[in-house]
Amino acid sequence: MIISSNLSAQSAANDLTNTSAALAKSLAKLSSGSRIVNAYDDAAGVAISLRFDAKIERANAARDNVANAMSFTNTQDGYLKRVSKTLNRMSELAMLSLDGTKSDGDRTLYQNEFAQLNDYITNVGGKEFNGVSLFSSANVVSVIDSEGTASINMTGVNLSSSTYAAVIGSTSPVVAPSSIATTAAATTALSSIRTAITQLAGDRATIGAFQSRLNMANDELAATIENFTAASSVIKDVDVARESTEFSRQNILNQSTTAMLAQANQLPQSVLRLLPQ
């Protein structure tokens, strides 16, 4: 029996160090909810989960782009619904002016309302969405996927185009607004309004096509976020039931090892019995 080196105590101390480290590691996983607390827990898993998390964040940003683009088109279509109603009323006024039983004085009364409706459409043409013109020839381009490779190019709905200018007029080039003050003017105005209504129908159909594309893009991004979140969860999230079992096992080992270390430290004391009193 020797007292210079207590190998039993040293072995128990090493076991206690290991069980304490394992207990701390298990506790960290349970408290964080993550299976990977440190990079060395799963180096490959860390790399993969980081890429997945970045893709999820990009997909969320792309969904914001899609939502804003959808709001833009909804605002456009909301105004164009009222422009459509306005053009319908203007065509009605032009038709009323073509009534041979009415005098030019009567037509002047119709013209007053007609001019106000002209002004309304002109005013709509200058509307903006967050500083971006709603009705111009410029296209609006938004990236709508998580990799930045897919975008939607929304062609402009230009209420200053020649088709609409024939009805409401324009300043560049100078085009006088249509009039229904006389029978001849009302005939010309009616023809221009009908052409503008056809153009408006096409513009609204184009906006509808963009909205359909945006809805599909939003659904795709939602699926991407859901799938990659699930994949990242498999890599990172801790299995609480299994880790709780491991925590209990390590806790018991830690307590028993602590008790055995105490016993090992007491073994050299038995040497005292061999010494003369």
How would you summarize the topology of this molecule?
Blueprint: H1 7-32, H2 43-97, H3 104-124, E1 128-129, E2 132-133, E3 140-143, E4 151-154, H4 162-168, E5 170-171, E6 174-175, H5 183-236, H6 240-266
Structure explained in plain terms:
The mean pLDDT is 86. The radius of gyration is 39 Å and the shape is rod-shaped. The chain starts with 6 loop residues before the first helix and ends in an 11-residue tail after the last helix. 69% of the residues lie in helices and 6% in strands. The chain is built from six helices and six strands. With 277 residues, the chain is mainly α. A two-stranded antiparallel ribbon has the order 1-2. It has a two-stranded antiparallel sheet with strand order 3-4. Strands 5-6 form a two-stranded antiparallel sheet. The chain has two domains: 7-33 and 238-273; 45-236, f41 fragment of flagellin, N-terminal domain, CATH 1.20.1330. Helix 2 (43-97) runs antiparallel to helix 3 (104-124) and helix 2 packs antiparallel against helix 5.
Q: So what's the CATH class of the largest domain?
A: Mainly Alpha
**Helix coverage percent of residues?**
55-70%
Assigned CATH architecture of the largest domain: Up-down Bundle
Q: Ends: how far apart?
A: 19 Å
**Which strands sit side by side, in order, in the main sheet?**
1-2
Q: Give me the secondary-structure category.
A: mainly alpha
Task: Please give the radius of gyration in angstroms.
Answer: 39 Å
Number of helices: 6
Rounded average pLDDT = 86
Please write the string of helix (H) and strand (E) elements: HHHEEEEHEEHH
Q: How is the CATH topology of the largest domain named?
A: f41 fragment of flagellin, N-terminal domain
Report the sheet-strand fraction. Answer: 5-15%
Major sheet attributes: 2 strands, antiparallel
